[in-house]
Amino acid sequence: MKKNYKKIINFFNYIIFFITSLFFLIKSSLADINITYLGHSCFFININNTYILIDPYSYELNYPYLKEFQNNKEFKNLSYIISTHTHFDHFNENIFKLYKHKYIKGADDNNWYPFYIDNNKIKIYNFGVYHDENYGQERGKNSIIVIQTNINNKEIKLVHLGDIGHTLNENNNYINKKNLNIKEIKNCDILFIPVGGYFTIDINKINELINFINPKSIIPMHYKNKYIPDFPIANLNDFLNNPKIKQTLNKYKIIKTNQQINLKEIRANQLIIFDIYK
């Protein structure tokens, strides 16, 4: 009787172990992407516990969000810190000094720094473009960051344009063609795009850029708000109400969210506004 009892106990332990393992396997397969907006062009992106920080700005700017985020455990466990270029509103010298081994610079005024990361979970790479329409003569070089992963056997691609200063097309002379097939960014799932103009692509030409890339969803960034009132750039409403842009945005539904959004909440043809500048 005791032997039978032990067999029954062992059998149920095995069942419990099997169910628990299956649960974690399913949970892992359903893992997705979390995006946290930290102001300006800075985003924290969590993909299956790979932590990526893009374009952390200097503390000279008055945004509180990056300093607050530095107190979180995710910041201390960052996998990669990436600056599209080294202008002070996209590059944090303090963070660079503390985390040189994790910090990747995509460009400075004079050079592009191509990189390619593949850690089996995600791929991250960049390619060189310019900060202005005059081939970098006015504001130097910039880079576009591409993050690629698979979620539930579906390829997901996020594209961060940094401070791009010009449009794109199939034969664009603005691109550092050594490490780019322009088609790689077309029809991406999420496009992070600067919309304030002046330092970046002219607000009247943003519609051309959106039409060319044709993203499934758009996240606007780099626009005037209460923390940078003296920046000579347009605010979000200037972008949303621009006649040319309104025509392009017709197919996108505006979704307002708080500081964080999960990929499950993002649908095709959405323009996502992080409503943090109240």
Portion in strands: 25-35%
The SSE string, one letter per element, is: HEEEHHEHEEEEEEHEHHEEE
Task: Report helical residue fraction.
Answer: 10-25%
Give start-end ranges of low-pLDDT stretches: 17-30
Describe this structure in words.
There is one protein chain. The protein is α/β, with parallel strands linked by helices. It folds into 2 domains: 1-30; 34-274, Metallo-beta-lactamase, Chain A. It is built from 7 helices and 14 strands. It has helices at 2-29, 65-69, 73-76, 93-98, 206-213, 236-241, 243-248, and strands at residues 33-37, 43-47, 50-54, 80-83, 103-105, 116-118, 122-130, 141-151, 154-160, 190-194, 217-221, 253-257, 260-262, 270-274. Strand 10 (190-194), helix 5 and strand 11 (217-221) form a beta-alpha-beta unit. It is globular, with a radius of gyration of 21 Å. The termini are far apart.
